[in-house]
Design goal:
The complex is a heterotrimer of chains A (340), B (349) and C (322).
Chain A lengths: L11 H15 L5 H4 L20 H11 L1 H19 L41 H36 L1 H15 L3 H11 L4 H29 L1 H8 L4 H38 L10 H10 L8 H28 L7
Chain B lengths: L6 E14 L2 E14 L3 E5 L6 H7 L8 E10 L2 E2 L6 H5 L6 E4 L13 H12 L4 H14 L5 H5 L8 H14 L4 E5 L7 H18 L2 E6 L2 H7 L2 E6 L2 E7 H6 L4 H8 L49 E4 L2 E3 L15 H9 L6
Parallel strand pairs in B: 3-8, 3-9, 6-7, 7-8
Antiparallel strand pairs in B: 1-2, 1-4, 4-5, 9-10, 10-12, 11-12
Helix pairs in contact in B: 3-4, 3-6, 4-6, 6-7
Chain C lengths: L1 H27 L15 H10 L6 H13 L15 H37 L6 H15 L2 H13 L2 H7 L11 H30 L2 H9 L3 H18 L1 H20 L4 H11 L2 H29 L13
Classes of the chains: A mainly alpha (340), B alpha/beta (349), C mainly alpha (322).
Chain lengths: 340, 349, 322
């Protein structure tokens, strides 16, 4: 079983045989007798076939990096993430909550972008640059946490759901019911009932987010049991953990990462929405949501529009990057696309 | 032989390549073959030998990453390799050449009734519409042996069994009134009991509509049943061509020997079944010499170096092997082949 | 077929029951201030009395029974803050028509624009440069990636604040029933998400279909490409798409919350937002209920529609996969 086709592509043996014969034919040329005599038969070189050297992760990464656009956005996103977290430690940064006053003690509000304040200040004199990065941190934090909770709870429930046959019915019905609850509605309700805040949003979003993941994992688990190639693996005596590792994990990990990648823009979006309705984060916790909100309210005043542009720009870059990278990774991880 | 010796389709030095994972796969390596009007030609070979790719070229159905890199396909005075656009191929598909695919379960559109799918072919190729078209559909349904065509007309594919579906697929092909019918592994996906029926059906249709049939198969039993002539393919090249009798009883190429020896019916009780050692070559690489050489225990040194040309055994039988060269030593075909000769029995399905 | 429908309907009813009960439980946890318009001015006893009169101090099981009873009578209670003492059904009755009107228009436009876009993109994948596909993808990615809240703002901005929008096209920022031009931006906002959604899914399904065996057979039959695209690929791809249509009605509904308040459209969505801002508990409760019911109905119709359009469904068990 060791040669399940995973040998390196180059078959040296047959080539070598041919080459050596060719060589010997050249100097001096082989007589007809020689040429028409029997050659050694080497059973091993008969095994040459195999279009392999196929490695799942190798092909996935290759497919991903062939996608120039995805790579571009990956670079953008990584840079942005790094910067977001390094920013407070850079020299000359201002505190996002600090109200700046001018020499007469009056707040420097609505100052357009310039030397002192790279993105200007808001209506109460806070530095927009600092606020934006602080807001990004908050929003990303919410996004990551929700994605993480979704993944953990989702995987746990999914495994249980898939493995323990008796629970399948119960979970399926539960899923069908919960699936019908619109997430946004629940979000609104919960934010309305509990006090608005970072934990409330995380809680509300996580409540229904794990459903999709759980269902997906459960389907995969069932596939472990039921797909022919896994049954074949079991017949060959391959232990379950190895089946999971080699047959399922590659697919799972890539799709899980994709779902997580997409969960982040979704969480941020929900946060923006909820802030608009008024049950989002309080204003003293800067977040992309309330920054955009404030900016929006100033839309009509041309000179103040920068307060809208900047947060929107940052938001768009982040969400688009995550979306593209998530989708590109999912495409790359799909073996059907390993053909080119 | 009853058929006239008119060449209806002539393939000359065809080269087909695929781009796969940024490498080039040379799938068809300079193949030449003539197809005679009215005959039943079987193209035999193992999986991956290139048989399907070969016939797809004749209808312009190659996958997107495949292309013809040289050679000609001559039909009716036209070179089909020059056809690039849909419009060109519409002159051929269905009208001149029709195809029956391997898997009847997926060959039919699950969301359309059988009647509609058949009628589409009829309307396109017989020029009938409305009631006249429907009548033609019912006719062809009974032609292929489907009872109660009126009722069946309105049914969906999932209401048919595998064998019935294949009959429908054949009906669609016939309804196009082609000159050539290509059957790509028509019975592989079917039960053994149904296989014979389908083969009989195709033969009957061939007779009735005066078709030339090309069978693609890896099942020698099927071949023995239906073929007038056999072409053996290996690694993207044709290694032996001859009449059915010639190839079965007097094969000349070591690969054909190996293939015939693998027939389980030739197995002797208590002994190991014969199996060809090794696997087909990797066509990402240039093949030096005879492609079968590495797996051939009786290979000659020259087999590894130079590709053998076709040697004629008779006007209708030729094989690409250095063993037929006058300078080569005499090699007897293996035991199993002699058994075949002695038994003198055609292997039935 | 009828069996399938009945099964689905029962399922939906059951789900509705559960959801309503959950909602009910959640809403009982709402902050008490929401029942009064001037909570701070009331003394503790006054609060108690009012709560009692509203039946909120009774044991839970009593409340549930009363709640369902009221529902079955079509009584959604009274508003306590927004418009004190007015029956909620009356309030809603005023607001619904405009929401429905906008919603329907947006739905028609999304179908009219989204489907052709999807087809165009799918067709374009077969061309050499795939330009149509690439452009379309840029559009879809932008719309799908960006939170809808953001592009709603941008649309309003582009439409009413820029030179082209405001001065040349004369698009107003806020909605005004008497000004037909003011319908344009809200409808664009409502439909654009769905346009991207339909286009994306239709394209995906069509590309998948195009690789199927029976399409190859149709091609081998000699059916011209255009006909294959329309009669076979699109027809087949449309079937799974049908289940997304009610889903997108949901999107429109939810979106309308945001869009209506952005443009000050006096509809249901705006009402809910106001109810939340003003903390009118009974109103919030009633509205959320309605929205939940509509969502479930929407999904139910999606399943039924699928059953009608796909002949295979009556014969096989469909496992609630959406």
């Amino acid at each position: 079983m060791k040669n399940l086709g995973f040998r390196p592509l180059r078959n040296v043996k047959t080539d070598a045989l041919g080459d050596s014969i060719l060589e010997s034919m050249k100097q001096p040329p082989l007589s007809d007798e020689e040429a028409f005599s029997f050659a050694e038969f080497d059973p091993e070189s008969a095994e040459r076939g195999g279009y392999s050297g196929y490695s799942y992760w190798g092909s996935t990464l290759r497919a991903f990096f062939q996608n120039k656009i995805a790579v571009f956005f990956l670079i953008v996103m990584v840079t942005m993430l790094l910067f977001t977290f390094i920013q407070p430690y850079l020299p000359g940064q201002k505190d996002p909550l600090l109200i700046h006053n001018d020499e007469w003690g009056l707040p420097l509000n609505n100052v357009p972008p310039g030397e002192e304040f790279w993105m200007g200040t808001n209506s109460i004199g806070q530095d927009l640059w600092a606020r934006i990065w602080a807001g990004t941190r908050t929003s990303l934090f919410i996004g990551f946490t929700v994605a993480l909770v979704e993944a953990v709870v989702g995987i746990l429930v999914g495994v249980l759901w898939g493995y323990v046959r008796k629970l399948d019915f119960f979970f399926t019905e539960l899923y069908n019911v919960l699936d019908n609850i619109p997430q946004t509605l629940l979000l609104i309700l919960i934010s309305y009932v509990l006090r608005p805040g970072v934990s409330t949003i995380i809680f509300a979003l996580s409540l229904t987010g794990w459903l999709g993941m759980a269902r997906f994992i459960r389907n995969q688990i069932i596939i472990i049991r039921d797909r022919d190639y896994n049954l074949a693996s079991r017949c060959l005596g391959i232990p379950t953990w190895r089946i999971i590792l080699k047959n399922l994990l590659p697919y799972l990990v890539s799709v899980i990462t994709m779902r997580m990648a997409l969960a982040i823009p979704s969480a941020i979006g929900n946060e923006v929405f909820v802030t608009y309705i008024g049950i989002g984060l309080p204003v003293d916790t800067p977040s992309l949501g309330n920054l955009i909100q404030t900016g929006r309210s100033l839309m009509t005043v041309a000179s103040l529009r920068y307060q809208l542009y900047f947060p929107v720009l940052v938001l768009v870059v982040i969400t688009v990057s995550f979306y593209i990278i998530g989708n590109a990774f999912a495409d790359a991880a799909d073996p059907k696309n390993h053909v080119k | 032989m009853e058929q006239t010796k008119n060449v209806i389709l002539s393939i000359q030095d065809l080269d087909v390549k695929f781009t796969l994972r940024s490498q080039v796969l040379h799938a068809i390596r300079g193949v030449s073959l003539d197809v005679y009007q009215g005959e039943s030609l079987a193209i035999v070979g193992e999986s991956g030998s290139g048989k399907s790719v070969f016939v797809k070229c004749m209808m312009g159905l190659l996958d997107a990453n495949g292309y013809i890199d040289g050679g000609k396909i001559l039909y009716n005075g036209q070179d089909l390799t020059k056809y690039k656009t849909d419009k060109d191929w519409l002159k051929i598909r269905g009208k001149e050449i029709a195809m029956v695919f391997q898997d009847p379960m997926t060959s039919l559109n699950p969301l359309k009734t059988i009647g509609k799918q058949l009628q589409e072919a009829v309307e396109l190729h017989q020029g009938l519409h409305g009631q006249a078209a429907k009548k033609a559909v019912l006719e062809v349904l009974s032609d292929v042996g489907i009872d109660d065509p009126e009722r069946r007309y309105k049914q969906y594919p999932h209401e048919f069994s595998g064998g019935m579906r294949q009959r429908v697929v054949i009906a669609i092909a016939i309804a196009c009134r082609p000159k050539i019918l290509i059957c790509d592994e028509p019975t592989t996906a079917l039960d053994v009991t149904i296989q014979a029926q389908i083969l009989e059906l195709i033969k009957a249709m061939q007779k009735k509509y005066n078709l030339t049939t090309i069978y693609i198969t890896h099942d020698l039993g099927v071949v023995a049943n239906v073929a007038d002539r056999i072409a053996v393919m290996y690694a993207g090249d044709i290694v032996e061509v001859g009449s059915c009798d010639e190839v079965f009883y007097d094969p000349k190429h070591p690969y054909t020997w190996a293939l015939l020896s693998s027939l389980p019916q030739l197995g002797v009780k208590g002994e190991d079944l014969y199996a060809i050692q090794g696997t087909p070559p990797n066509l990402f690489y240039e093949v030096h010499g005879d492609a079968f050489a590495p797996r051939n225990p009786k290979a000659l040194k020259i087999d590894f170096v130079e590709k053998p040309p076709f040697f004629e055994v008779s006007p209708t039988h030729k094989a690409r092997t250095w063993l037929l060269d006058p300078r080569a030593p005499k090699v007897e075909p293996p035991e199993h082949i002699r058994l075949l000769r002695e038994k003198g029995v055609k292997i039935h399905v | 077929m009828t069996k399938y429908i009945t099964k689905r309907v029962l399922h939906a009813l059951f789900t509705m029951l559960i959801i309503i009960t959950i909602l009910f439980a959640l809403l009982r946890m709402m902050p008490v201030e929401g029942y009064f318009e001037n909570y701070d001015k009331m003394s503790a006893t006054q609060v108690q009395v009012k709560l009692q009169s509203l039946g909120l101090t009774d044991p839970l099981y009593k409340q549930i029974v009363r709640f369902y009873g009221q529902l079955l009578h079509g009584d959604l209670g009274e508003s306590n803050v927004y418009r004190k003492g007015v029956a909620i059904t009356e309030i809603i009755g005023e607001k619904i028509p405009i929401s429905i009107r906008l919603g329907l228009m947006a739905l028609c436009i999304s179908l009219a624009l989204g489907l052709p876009l999807g087809i165009f993109m799918a067709r374009s994948t077969r061309t050499k440069w795939k330009i149509g596909d690439k452009l379309g993808t840029v559009f879809i990615v932008l719309i799908q990636a960006m939170p809808s809240a953001v592009y709603h703002i941008l649309i309003q901005f582009a439409g009413s604040q820029t030179h082209i929008g405001r001065d040349i096209l004369g698009l107003p920022m806020l909605f005004d029933a008497s000004n037909p031009k003011s319908y344009i931006l809200p409808i664009i906002s409502l439909s654009i998400g769905n346009i991207a959604y339909y286009a994306m899914w239709l394209r995906r399904y069509m590309v998948d279909e195009a690789n199927k065996d029976y399409i190859r057979l149709a091609r081998a039959k000699g059916v011209p490409n255009g006909k294959i695209s329309r009669n076979h690929v699109f027809r087949n791809a449309f079937v799974p798409l049908v289940q997304y249509i009610p889903n997108s009605i949901l999107f429109t509904l939810m979106g309308s919350l945001y869009v209506e308040s952005l443009y000050s459209v006096p509809g249901m969505g705006c009402l809910l937002v106001t109810a939340i801002k003003r903390q009118d508990n009974t109103l919030v409760q009633a509205l959320v209920l309605i929205y939940a019911v509509i969502s479930i109905l929407g999904l139910l119709f999606g399943d039924i529609l699928m059953g009608i359009v796909d002949p295979r469904i009556s014969f096989s068990k469909k496992e609630g996969a959406r």
